[in-house]
């Protein structure tokens, strides 16, 4: 098996961050406990013959910290991007985790917004292969990105 490149490792870190944020919400575990579990037991692990992707641990940690530290701001931006009848509390918890991870990258990191949007649309496709959610994610993240980083547009 070839070693994944930096881009693949960051993509894996994004996917793991969405899973970890979902797990935090469902289990009431701390960011430290969930992050440790993912870093120790999921990154590059093998389960029943399936090898998990190796992720960029630093990027994962930054996403987790940013999502937790900036959650109130990210959730408000997400609410503004959603229609009034569907506040963030009412959307699918996987999508909520995805918006928080992407929001962390837009608010607290220097990844270009178009890269963030494309990467998290791919994450949405991994969780929702039907494709409808990917279009929704694209629209919401475009709105959040324009609010968080207007200078990039």
UniProtKB/TrEMBL annotation:
PANTHER family: ANTITERMINATION NUSB DOMAIN-CONTAINING PROTEIN (PTHR11078:SF3), N UTILIZATION SUBSTANCE PROTEIN B-RELATED (PTHR11078). The keyword RNA-binding applies. Involved in transcription antitermination. Required for transcription of ribosomal RNA (rRNA) genes. Binds specifically to the boxA antiterminator sequence of the ribosomal RNA (rrn) operons. The gene is nusB. It holds the Pfam family NusB. It comes from Allgaiera indica. This is Transcription antitermination protein NusB. GO terms for cellular component: cytosol. SUPFAM superfamilies: NusB-like.
């Amino acid at each position: 098996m070839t070693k994944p490149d930096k881009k693949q490792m960051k993509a894996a870190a994004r996917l793991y961050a969405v899973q970890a944020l979902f797990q935090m919400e469902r289990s009431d575990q701390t960011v430290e406990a969930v992050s440790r579990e993912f870093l120790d037991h999921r990154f590059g692990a093998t389960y029943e013959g399936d090898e998990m992707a190796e992720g960029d641990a630093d990027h994962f940690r930054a996403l987790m910290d940013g999502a937790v530290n900036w959650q109130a701001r990210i959730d408000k931006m997400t609410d503004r991007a959603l229609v009034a009848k569907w506040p963030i509390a009412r959307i699918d918890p996987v999508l909520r985790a995805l918006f928080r991870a992407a929001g962390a990258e837009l608010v607290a990191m220097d990844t270009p917004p178009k890269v963030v949007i494309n990467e998290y649309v791919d994450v949405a496709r991994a969780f929702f292969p039907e494709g409808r959610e990917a279009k929704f994610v694209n629209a919401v993240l475009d709105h959040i990105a324009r609010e968080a980083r207007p200078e990039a547009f």
